[in-house]
Recover the amino acids of this structure.
């Protein structure tokens, strides 16, 4: 039994004008590539965490074919919330879990047991600009109003993650894997409230997605940072091969 993760499927079976090909050839027929890799790597006894941005459908009636695709994948599927998942209101997570009981699990501001671990997740957030550059392409300033707005969203997501950790700790869990959709830091930060929370709870791994295209792959932390393993699992970054998290 193994745990895998990947993010940003951006399925569009019912919204065909939302193809991701502008981000490179890796997106061409990515649905077929991903299914093929899943069938080679993931067994029905394994668990696959899909780390946000599952579908371009804005309401459930526009997501039906995308969910059929996800349910056809091998393994147990856990979905976390991304910024483009408009079908998923943060207050309706319980309703989604009831609707897809026995087929899919939805993880947002709560935890799901996985062996000795508690899997905790929220969408997260980070300030992504606008940034102002000098003639050499270096960041010299940024939009302060947008940065202030971002801070409010960061605080909201931070509180949701704290709630998830508290619930897991109250249930007796001491080992954690933390999932965010947004990266835990932006290009200006060396740490954030999310990295500090991960250190507070002695998280084993932090998994995130959201960063598309080679220019974005190094926006945040990858590898070991203060004893915690950070992994970017955007589908295009992984070339549509799920990343093994725990074997």
């Amino acid at each position: 039994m193994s745990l895998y993760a990947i993010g940003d499927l951006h399925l569009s079976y019912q919204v065909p004008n939302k193809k991701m090909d502008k981000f490179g050839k890796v997106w061409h027929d990515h649905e077929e590539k991903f299914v093929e890799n899943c069938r080679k790597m993931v067994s029905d006894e394994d668990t696959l965490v899909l780390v946000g941005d599952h579908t371009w459908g804005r309401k459930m009636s526009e997501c039906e074919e995308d969910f059929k695709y996800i349910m056809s994948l091998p393994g147990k599927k856990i979905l976390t919330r991304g910024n483009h998942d408009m079908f998923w209101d943060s207050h309706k997570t319980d309703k989604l879990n009831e609707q897809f009981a026995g087929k899919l699990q939805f993880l947002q501001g709560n935890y799901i047991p996985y062996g000795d671990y508690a899997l905790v997740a929220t969408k997260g957030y980070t300030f992504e600009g606008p940034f102002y550059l000098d003639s050499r392409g270096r960041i010299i300033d940024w939009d302060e109003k947008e940065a202030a707005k971002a801070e409010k969203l960061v605080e909201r997501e931070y509180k949701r993650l704290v709630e998830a950790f508290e619930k897991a700790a109250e249930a007796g869990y001491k080992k954690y894997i933390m999932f965010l959709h947004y990266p835990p830091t932006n290009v200006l930060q060396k740490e954030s409230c999310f990295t500090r929370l991960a250190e507070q709870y002695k998280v084993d791994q932090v998994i995130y997605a959201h960063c598309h295209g080679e220019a974005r792959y190094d926006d945040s932390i990858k590898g070991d940072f203060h004893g915690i393993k950070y992994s970017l699992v955007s589908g295009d970054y992984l070339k549509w091969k799920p990343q093994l998290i725990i074997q």
Observations:
- Residues 3-246 form a domain with the Purple Acid Phosphatase; chain A, domain 2 fold (CATH 3.60.21.10).
- The CA atoms of residues 128 and 186 lie 7 Å apart.
- The chain has one domain: 3-246.
